[in-house]
Specification:
Belongs to the NadD family. The chain has helices at about 30-45, 65-75, 90-95, 100-110, 120-125, 135-140, 155-165, 175, 195-200, 215-220, and strands at about 5, 20-25, 50-55, 85, 115-120, 140-145, 180-185. By secondary structure, it is an alpha/beta fold. The structure holds adenosine-5'-triphosphate.
């Protein structure tokens, strides 16, 4: 497992608290993911954000593009931004990518006291009750839910109880405790999705400006999503 980044170039004094993870299929990664990541770092001053591509999504169809190609695209997308890094543990672990397993290993590496924040779009948050051991996730991390255009945040009843049990009253709680809170966040709303990009490719339409140019070139070069 590797964590690529230039974060090591920062002195300890330049970093604040909080490791953020954004898991995803990233099939492909796009500006909706990346803008949310940067917005979140800017707004709350967390020390790093790790993009964690899954090997085998548990709640979606298996992608046609290989895990290594999706990983390549994530790496290409952040090569100029030192605040973001890639964590490939789910890909090296192989098998179905259960988030609870990922959280347990990251928690054991960063220690008990470091805040760990998992960022999810509204769609992923609403699917939480279908995740393995979902009620235990907040033992290991906070959850930040980013409003995603087109997704109604009316929570299904099962999530209402979960939300009320864990709701943070202020974003400061995300840094003052290591885990346990849920925070709803509104960042730059971008109605971009990976499925939109795959559909455009299938129709041989342009995907320019929806994702980093290097990723677009990788898709073109490897004839992906045709
Ligand atoms: P697909 O269209 O194939 O379902 P996706 O665009 O949702 O893919 P994922 O890799 O599944 O991309 O998403 C990873 C995480 O990023 C999820 O928590 C998802 O909700 C969130 N996310 C994806 N796109 C956006 C966006 N435009 N704005 C905010 N969050 C997003």
């Amino acid at each position: 497992m590797t964590i690529d980044s230039s974060l090591s170039a920062l002195s300890a004094g330049q970093r604040s608290k909080g490791v953020v993870i954004m898991g995803g299929t990233f099939d492909p990664i796009h500006h909706g993911h990346l803008r949310s990541a940067i917005d979140l770092l800017d707004k709350h001053g967390f020390k790093e954000l790790r993009l964690v591509p899954c090997f085998q999504p548990v709640h979606k169809d298996r992608p046609n593009v290989s895990a290594l190609q999706r990983l390549d695209m994530v790496r290409l997308s952040i090569e100029n931004d030192s605040r973001l890094c890639v964590d490939d543990r789910e890909i090296t672990r192989e098998g179905p990518s259960y988030t609870i397993d990922t959280l347990k290993t990251i928690r054991s590496e960063i220690g008990e006291s470091e805040p760990l924040i998992m960022v999810l779009g509204t769609d992923s948050f609403l699917s939480l009750p279908t995740w393995a051991d979902w009620w235990d996730l907040t033992e290991y991390c906070h959850i930040v839910v980013v409003a995603r255009p087109g997704w109604d945040s009316e929570y299904i009843s099962e999530l209402n109880a979960f939300y009320e049990n864990h709701r943070a009253l202020s974003a400061i709680e995300l840094q003052s405790a290591p885990a346990g809170k849920v925070w709803l966040e509104t960042l730059t709303p971008l109605g971009i999705s990976s499925s939109m990009i795959r559909n455009l490719c299938r129709q041989s339409l342009s995907i320019a400006y929806l994702l980093p140019k290097a990723v677009q070139e990788y898709i073109d070069h490897n004839q992906l999503y045709k």
